[in-house]
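Retro notes
What went well: the complex prediction finally ran end to end.
Inputs used:
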Amino acid sequence: MTNEEIKEYISTLAPAATFDETGEWLNILVEPTALKPLMSALRTGKMQMNYLFCLTCVDFKTHLTMVYHLSATTHRQSIVIKANLNRDAPVIETVCDIWRTAEFLEREVFEMFGVNFTNHPDLRKLILEDDFKGFPLRKDFEDPINMIKL
Amino acid sequence: MYNQTEILKDTSELGADGELVINMGPQHPATHGVLHLVVTLNGETIKKIEPHLGYIHRSIEKMCESLTYRQFIYVTSRMDYLSSHINNLGCALLVEKGMAIEVPDRAKYVRVILSELTRIASHELWLGAMAMDLGAFTPFFYAFREREMITDIMEDTCGARLTMNYIVPGGLMYDIHPDFQKKVKAFITQFKSKVTEYEDLVTNNVIFQSRTKGVGILTAEDAISYGCTGPVARASGVSCDIRKLYPYEVYDKVEFDEVLETAGDSFARYIVRVKEMNQSIRIIEQLIDNIPEGDFVGKTKNVLKLPKGEFYTRVETARGEFGVFVVSEGGTTPHRIKFRSPGFSNLSALNHIAAGSKIGDLMASMGTLDLVIPDIDR
């Protein structure tokens, strides 16, 4: 599928989506509430995106952005889905029932950025200690003991 | 991670239906690193495996945010320390792609040869350690005999045996050692004459086969869903070799086969790695006599600044797809960097692979996933 066809297809699934073609792949920015239905449709619909190869979050100081890199083992076309979250109360629905690799990746984002994934089966800290305070990969995180800044 | 009281409570109590929770690791000889698995057992059958990570977490992603594009490459050697050269390559490729830096052919050839030597060294170590986990001690010495030759080549050319740090954006840090080609050829001869010993010792070993065949089965569909890559996915029949799918450097100029097996069990994962070593030798043979003369590093600016935007590159390490995702704001340091480590995704499939099997088979299932803990924790 060309980028134009993908855009047209995604516009039918998520009308509010905005597109950005400046990068290597087509970037699609959607509302957090529209993410889950879109993801389900991408997995089961005609695009058959069965391979989630990267899931992460970026802190832009004013907001957090969830970034999902999707591909398919059949046609090998990659797209990037993004959703902007409110920095004070970031909530988004989980995708780990669609791609099971998301379970661990979302747990990592949860502890590093404080994003809450609704309906996640086991949302606990994965790498950090249970009593760790703060979200280390956010830009405003400061740790007086283990200095990271140079 | 578990806190102290939970660990004590779990091990001292039996659940209502005879469940027993045991802690495997963080100091366990077969996890080869500080991996902590909380295994829930019913008799000898595994009901659930929960990995608890973080014992070697160094926050490399946060560290990289304050390092320049020349500096951050060297931190990545400390992630997957068995494919450190390939990690460096992935990061260098990202900077070169972002800034459109031309890399001389000589550097490309040497990079690929060293990557393949790294892959062989990694698989050799895995082979020895894996056989040792299953009770065969001798293969460990056989595998290390050949691996030693590779680390000597690395020491001559890169100056280090494990964390090479030989790649810089634009090429190589310095030229190859004068004896490089001679030594690599000596290694190829040695390896080819000895690789049959592995077949005799391990592959055709009845005990080894009965301990790995049909153990820890992962279907192709699950492998994709769990994001498994590398030999783990290829043993399930998923074609995922980055060197074939998205060729980088000179992989599109050399002939080699992507090794695929369909059984998806521990034995298939073993076979894939052994065959991959032979394919790596094939690649090196095609390149070693044809290293072009010329510069070993391209012209770059002193201060590297990636343009504003997002960049992603991937390379095939010994364990699978290693991805680097960088968000740049146009400065000298990345705004956000994410390493998609293959071990992390492969580990997430462990519970699925091992649940329902016997605890004795866990060694075979986990060993063939080839987990490197610093790669998972980052």
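What we learned: Chain B touches chain A at residues 1-3, 52-54, 57, 59, 61-63, 66-67, 222, 224-227, 238-240, 245, 309-312, 321, 323, 325, 327, 335-336, 338, 340, 344-345, 347-349, 352, 377 (CB under 8 Å).
What to try next: split runs per interface for comparison.
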